[in-house]
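FAQ: What does the model actually see?

It sees only this:
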Amino acid sequence: MSRLAVVVGLVGLIGLTSCVTPDRHREVLSANRAFRDQIADLKRVNDQYQAENVRLSTEVQRMGPLVKDAAALAEQKKQVEAILRGLKESGTTGAELPAGVTTVQTSDGLIVRVEGSVLFASGSVKLSKIGQSTLKQLSGAIGNHNGGIRIAGHTDTDKISRSSWKTNMRLSVQRGLAVLEFLTKSGVSEERMSVAGYGPYAPVDPGDKAKNRRVEIVLLKAK
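And it is asked to produce this:
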């Protein structure tokens, strides 16, 4: 390459460099800083979205069981409404539960609790006329339940003295069987029912013997 070409090249490079003025240089630097700031802002936003996504995922996992519980309560509510409809159709005024009958919602299902004084005389396993009438009113709604039915007899803690049943446990089982047999005769499918006896060992109120003497008809959740 000739010396003249080298000189011309150097002159051109000097001219090109001189075109980048200090003001232009500052603008480029400022633009670069702004660009870096935007990138940093976008990273912060992305981190926030990631953290929110984790929080929402955790919340969904936490809410899962609650949603299932809500569905179970809704199903139990339907069962209560079905019983009340059955009572209304059987002629019970205002679709109210008969005297001495209450319902309790549990994780197992709906408990239809009937006071022992409504069903039996003291120490007896023979259903009273009032007890038969009460069970008759309940039988239609109970029979419409689409799951299993557990009938549980309960007694108080008083020792057996005048009854032919030697223990409260035997008495509780026989009372459960008496209710099962009556419901079977009233049209409830026997194959869906089972009987349990708890004697005095599952009180609802340890200080109230009258409340503890009862038969519970448990409408188990359909599987």
